[in-house]
Amino acid sequence: MIDRSNRLSFASDYLEGAHPAVLRRLQETNLLQTAGYGLDEFSEAAREKIRAACHAPEADVFFLAGGTQTNAVMIKAMLRPWQGVMAAETGHISCHEAGAIEADGHKVFTLPQENGKLSADAVKACIDAYRQDENRDHMVAPGLVYLSFPTEYGTLYSRSELEAISAVCRASGIPLYLDGARLAYALACPENDVTLPDIARLCDAFYIGGTKCGALFGEAAVIPRHDAVPHLFTLIKQHGALLAKGRITGVQFDTLFTDGLYDEIGHTAVSAADRIRAALTAKGIELCFGSPTNQIFLLLTRAEAARLQEKVALSFWENPDENHTILRLATSWATTDAQVERLLEIL
Amino acid sequence: MIDRSNRLSFASDYLEGAHPAVLRRLQETNLLQTAGYGLDEFSEAAREKIRAACHAPEADVFFLAGGTQTNAVMIKAMLRPWQGVMAAETGHISCHEAGAIEADGHKVFTLPQENGKLSADAVKACIDAYRQDENRDHMVAPGLVYLSFPTEYGTLYSRSELEAISAVCRASGIPLYLDGARLAYALACPENDVTLPDIARLCDAFYIGGTKCGALFGEAAVIPRHDAVPHLFTLIKQHGALLAKGRITGVQFDTLFTDGLYDEIGHTAVSAADRIRAALTAKGIELCFGSPTNQIFLLLTRAEAARLQEKVALSFWENPDENHTILRLATSWATTDAQVERLLEIL
Amino acid sequence: MIDRSNRLSFASDYLEGAHPAVLRRLQETNLLQTAGYGLDEFSEAAREKIRAACHAPEADVFFLAGGTQTNAVMIKAMLRPWQGVMAAETGHISCHEAGAIEADGHKVFTLPQENGKLSADAVKACIDAYRQDENRDHMVAPGLVYLSFPTEYGTLYSRSELEAISAVCRASGIPLYLDGARLAYALACPENDVTLPDIARLCDAFYIGGTKCGALFGEAAVIPRHDAVPHLFTLIKQHGALLAKGRITGVQFDTLFTDGLYDEIGHTAVSAADRIRAALTAKGIELCFGSPTNQIFLLLTRAEAARLQEKVALSFWENPDENHTILRLATSWATTDAQVERLLEIL
Amino acid sequence: MIDRSNRLSFASDYLEGAHPAVLRRLQETNLLQTAGYGLDEFSEAAREKIRAACHAPEADVFFLAGGTQTNAVMIKAMLRPWQGVMAAETGHISCHEAGAIEADGHKVFTLPQENGKLSADAVKACIDAYRQDENRDHMVAPGLVYLSFPTEYGTLYSRSELEAISAVCRASGIPLYLDGARLAYALACPENDVTLPDIARLCDAFYIGGTKCGALFGEAAVIPRHDAVPHLFTLIKQHGALLAKGRITGVQFDTLFTDGLYDEIGHTAVSAADRIRAALTAKGIELCFGSPTNQIFLLLTRAEAARLQEKVALSFWENPDENHTILRLATSWATTDAQVERLLEIL
User: Fold this and answer.
1) Best mutation site among B239, B242, B249, B331 for testing chain A: the one with the most A CBs within 10 Å?
2) Residue C2: inside a domain, yes or no?
């Protein structure tokens, strides 16, 4: 029943279970009795720690099971029926969530991107085009901006880029939502200059990823201004995203936000990725998209790709032309020095 | 952070985390690397054990995070846009899932019930009324039957009752779906004569509850006939119900269906409930609805109810009249002999 | 191609085309060129006349093609995703609109009724039950009241009944919506004491029926307070309910609200119905529900019903028991004295 | 109330009411009594004539009020929840129907186009990309092709182009749907080689436009193979698209398909457009997109555009650059020789 293949794997950042500290805490608290639906003390403690980490003492915080679910609930909650959400054409909601946004009745405006990133100009252009169109009353209104941070290509917005997008949004009265599925791997990145308080200041809602950042599963949706998204508890329930044993996510996020564990998780993954990046670059392998986070995209000939995958499991990303392949390599909180060493030897 | 109140609680069957064996297995397998999205070996092993337990070797089995979500996805998958689902007026989908079925576009036909149970006659009457109505093309068509087993009142269908409902469904070409959120507590009940193979034989889809029956969270949706519900993987993803680390539910259900743990969990809860029921009856306290499973409904005067709740936490259920209150008492896999003894002393 | 049967028909109030004055005006204006989508002068003139008739100078007025469509668009526009609409269990949206409300994501709370009418008490009870329920955050919130006037049984709310319902709504912050598919036949009724200005004063939105009251088709949705329902133009378009040639409904409603035609249409139908009611009562035929408007419900034995239907086409309504049948007889703007005379002879 | 401006207008093809023959027939049949909901003899006669014109004796034919509504209902009826519809990025459903398709839960795949037309290659590429994607189970499946004929740019598919697209669809098991809002103006076009029987042979569903082709309003949805789209009557009702007085559309389409009126309407518009095109070309004005139908797109400098619009009303289409404007000129069944002469003088 257990995968006994010895093949090294960097195929994704959700290959293992939870960070041992998280699992240990679940174990310790397992037989304590608590209220359900997130009304327990662990969830409340986790909320307080997240509010503190975000410098957002009034924030509403909800715990959900996964990223697609969190995106769907939050976007539905923040849009009205005549509105749609703007996202990069490579955004997760645009292509890899099986039409969850449309299933809830909303159009995704797919905007041009560079290395997975939207620009303030592209957002402004979309809003302006709508507002200047004589036929706009026959069209879906842009009603929300969706960003991922890091992006699907592992890239980061700088603080000034995020401020520019936020400024466009606020000038237009359009909220900004940030998908932080891999947020730990952004925050821990040496070249990153965006902090959790920056995100809480610049966004109207965002989520702090747990599933890919040390939890068994779970995401923490944060709305910095209390009640800015009304009736969210009921919408979460309606979407089937309310856990009966909310304590399970509560305990996990409480642990992730105790003693700097969320930071540590990020640093483990990013420093492993940095060592691997250095080795790949030294070998002359071209890295795509400029990701500084825990995902690395290798441009290889098909033959090189096939040879490499015999020895280490990576993810197929795309074929940019007939002769080349882009593979994705991901580190995580679970990546060990030994694994990195083995990989460097293979390389 | 920990609930240090000494008050005994029988308020629900999701007060604790997971059965220790489940948590232990999560611990043991934690650092093994597996594929995501339920394609891992643990999930596959769990599927095989569930197929075996159901005598349904061709069954499709999917793991989802919670009950409301599972109901919503399965009902959406089994209905066409012109159809609605029949349920008891007390059914969970009728009143306590925040309109999840309607949010997906479908009407819930609320049928009369007795102690939470539908009858084959009530189902047939609803279908006949539609089919004989001259204006039926202007109306929603009954397209699915939803049952809960045990019901929201803890009651059970007998095998012959379930066969009668299934016969009506099949004669009408309408599928039957069973919500088994507390299934372990039905199967373990001495007076129950319905087995998992019976359910797989009589229903077109059902789910085996994990959240309330020993798992941290998670439900196993079973479709006895392979591919009877097409494209379900994508619908699960679209609904945000696909776990990236599907292994987490796989490991849990694999454990629950190893060495009779799911049965044992049921017996622990039901035998505790039986001892409590006997004591309550001996005390002359009226029990409502006739539940033989892990839920007990006590009819008390308001004063009695207040006094009892000072010493033991129960759930408020409803006020049948101005002087009385019905409280719900629930046991679970986690109920200990010591807790039962303490309760009996209080009584 | 033309129905040459000589059988007299009172089967419904939409057997003919349009009132001749309406058709004449369509003819006269046919080749004038106008803007589309209701931005034309005829639509604007009709809006002004409706505002005047309602004593609601700031009202928003939109023209839609039919009643089910108007109900669906208005109810969707007035609810948020966590809310549902309260209606009589016999309300048109509850049973005869093919699940249009649920298809848009909302639950219909079916409230008890008497002769098709809701009471202020029943509305208050539904709202109170929700607001007092400890689990209300897991439930759909009542968010709108739907009334039909006249009801599906042809009955009328008195002004004081409507005021009582409106008072409950306003005290609860819940808007009131009135379906006036047959409004002309209420307003013209001698026993009616509710005026268009009353409706505009007491409701947050309503529609003035055209399809059954003299137009080829079309309904006028009225929102007494300007912009109380935002972005309605776009929602109408999104629902496919925006006519390219909005002038067609504009011309029709302009005509209906010129020189008292809408009143005249109502009086023609109601006075014919009154003559028929008197004759039926004189014959000892029992009339059901107490409808004083253009619909009459006859309680007959099955044999009597069959004999009557040989000579005059009526609508089957329901079978109250094994021996009896209720038939519906409807008059309209098109009912002639000759038709009434022929019917009285048959009787 | 009547537009008394003398300014000539070619702003759209829905400036007037109905073709006089249509209105006359409504007049003649106005007081005949018929059944509702399209079950009348006029609707049935119209269906028979449409079946004959399409060489599709088994076709299902439904009459709806407008184009956005027809598209929404048909696309919803032909897709399953995990599927989306492919359309040109300029397709009416992609941008000018206020998100109607997404509001019903479906993604619109916007494909590249040339002069408003999709190619068989683009359709095949979209289907292949999906089917070859390893992650396709996480993605929306292409489930329908939407074409407009003529396109939004007035252009036409040749028979061989339509056959190629249809062949791709059939090889993939994906139905083809054609939006014929302006179908009369395609069929009457000298360079067109596609007939109604071709459309019925190559498409799985389509609609014959009435609103822009001589009717007051109304479109005829045609499903060549009986019952290929099940329960459509109920879906039409659910969408609020079922007219109570279905006769109104029945009479109109019966008239349009009697004595070649639909053809005549097309020829009137196209021959007027051809004369105007010739004059514009002679004047050296550049025409865009190559439309041979009733719509003409003029590329003008902004100064030229402003001067022209003082004398004749045209529609603003778009600004291709800072100095130029594209205006749209449309003829219709109502365009007279005198209007064309006046326009030619102005030019």
Assistant:
1) B239
2) no
Q: Which of B100, B234, B334 lies at the smallest CB-CB distance from A98?
A: B234
At which of A205, A228, A256 does a domain end?
A256
Peptide bond into B150 cis (omega under 30): yes
Q: Which residue of A has its CA nearest to B14?
A: A245
Number of separate domains in chain B:
2
The answer to whether residue B311 neighbours chain C at the CB level (below 8 Å) is: no
How does residue C3 score in pLDDT terms, banded at 50, 70 and 90? Answer: very low
Q: What is the mean pLDDT of chain D?
A: 96
Q: What confidence score (pLDDT) does residue D5 get?
A: 56
- Assess whether D170 and D287 both reside in one domain: no
Q: Please, what's the largest Cα pairwise distance for chain A?
A: 63
Q: In which domain, by residue range, is D290 found?
A: 8-15+261-346
Helix (H) or strand (E) holding A236: helix A232-238
Considering just the CA atoms, what is the radius of gyration of chain B in Å?
Answer: 20
Decide if D314 contacts D285 (C-beta within 8 A): no
* Chain C residues lying within 8 Å of D32, measured CB to CB: 2-3, 16
Which of D95, D107, D134 lies at the smallest CB-CB distance from A139?
A: D95
pLDDT at B347: 87
Partner A contacted by C80 (CB < 8 A):
yes
Q: How many CA atoms lie within 13 A of D314 on its CB side?
A: 25
Q: List, for residues B303-340, the tens digit of each pLDDT value.
A: 999 999 999 999 999 999 999 999 999 999 999 999 99
Predicted pLDDT of residue B7: 85
**DSSP sequence for D269-281:** HHHHHHHHHHHHH
Helix, strand, coil share (%) of chain D residues, nearest 5: 40, 20, 40
> Please, what is the Cα angle at D231 between D228 and D235, to 5 degrees?
120
Report how far residue B156's alpha carbon sits from residue B189's, in angstroms, rounded to the nearest whole number: 9
Instruction: Examine the domain organization and report whether C279 and C251 are in the same domain.
Output: no
- The predicted-structure confidence for A47-92, as pLDDT tens digits, reads as follows 999 999 999 999 999 999 999 999 999 999 999 999 999 999 999 9
Q: Report the C-alpha gap between A68 and D216 in whole angstroms.
A: 46
> Distance (Å) from the C-alpha of residue A194 to the closest C-alpha of chain B?
27
Identify all chain D residues contacting C68, using CB atoms and an 8 Å cutoff. Answer: 237, 240, 242
* pLDDT tens sequence across B128-137: 999 999 999 9
Q: Are residues C31 and C161 in the same domain?
A: yes
In this structure, is residue A3 part of a structural domain?
A: no
Given this model, what pLDDT does residue A7 score? 85
State the complex-level ipTM.
Answer: 0.96
pLDDT digits 0-9 by tens, D58-93 = 999 999 999 999 999 999 999 999 999 999 999 999
For chain B, the average pLDDT equals: 96
Q: Is the pLDDT of residue A3 over 60?
A: no
> What is the band of C7 on the pLDDT scale with cuts at 50, 70, 90?
confident
The residues, any chain, with a CB within 8 Å of residue D284's CB and separated by 6 or more, are none
Q: Which chains touch B (3 or more CB pairs under 8 A)?
A: A, C, D
Cα of D95 to nearest chain A Cα, Å = 6
Per the CB < 8 Å rule, is A244 touching B66?
A: yes
The residues of chain B scoring below 70 in pLDDT are 1-6
> Please, what is the end-to-end C-alpha distance for chain C in angstroms?
30
Say if CB A264 and CB A256 are below 8 A apart.
no
Provide φ and ψ at B180, rounded to 5°: -105, 45
The DSSP 8-state label assigned to residue A177 in this structure reads E
**pLDDT at position C4 over 80:** no
Choose the final residue of a domain: A239, A256, A273. Answer: A256
Q: Which residues contact D121 (CB under 8 A, 6 or more apart)?
A: none
Q: Is C20's CB within 8 Å of D30's CB?
A: yes
The DSSP bridge partners found for residue A60 are A223
Q: Considering the domain boundaries, does residue B3 fall inside one? A: no
Domain CATH number, residue C281: 3.90.1150.10
